[in-house]
Amino acid sequence: MAFQTTEQIIAELRDLGIRPGRDGRYRFWKVVTADRAPPVQGGGIRYRDGAEISIKRYSSNPRALCGMGLHVLIHPNVGYGHRLLLRVVVAPEDIVCVPHGTAYALAVAQRSEGASDFTGGPKVRVRRLTVIGPAK
Q: What is the rounded CA–CA span in Å between residue 90 and residue 112?
């Protein structure tokens, strides 16, 4: 069951000031451990430069803040501690939801310096992404 259509997701991102690049894909950030694994649950995923990561099962329910799926940050200013921050790109059709509370988390991240917890930061949930490399 889809909770948000792609058009609704794009409109919500636009309202948050998030726009796609010239190629039509969105640029986001992914928090990973030093060995490029997800910091919470990962099922053996490793985020290598150039890799396309996809999953078959995900939650498109925006009320589920930490639902099943690949979580990417829409703003890099989060308290990710000793973790690595990667740049990733995502096609609009691969964004499955903008969790409720994202607008508030974005406002906190924009006015702070790393004060937002990485698990509750401003994020979207996706089903597929491509890793660009470490954020600079």
A: 26
In the chain, the amino acid numbered 78 is: V
Tell me the C-alpha distance between 24 and 125, whole Å: 18
The C-alpha atoms of residue 85 and residue 63 are separated, in whole angstroms, by 25
- 90-102 per-position pLDDT tens digit: 999 999 988 876 6
Strand 123-126 vs strand 95-97: parallel, antiparallel, or unpaired? antiparallel
- C-beta separation of 110 from 52 below 8 A: no
pTM: 0.82
* CA angle in degrees (0–180, nearest 5) for 130-27-99: 95
- Rounded Cα distance, 114 and 44, in Å: 28
